[in-house]
Amino acid sequence: MVFSTVDIVIFVLYCLLIIDTGIWVSREEEGQKNASDYFLASISLPWWAKGTSLIASNISAEQFVCRARAMR
Description:
Elements: H1 5-26, H2 35-40, H3 47-70
């Protein structure tokens, strides 16, 4: 597979956009965020929203692994 210059430029711009968005979102005037803020959304979400997010994450990761094994 050969990447053209356009492919590389788009990839680099995408990476910079993701990094910039992460830095912008992580800025907080109240102080630094901790693991509770990251994993539990500062305990501001209801239990069902957290549970749904965890289930969806686990299912999507499982499907990726199962599909990779099936392709062997």
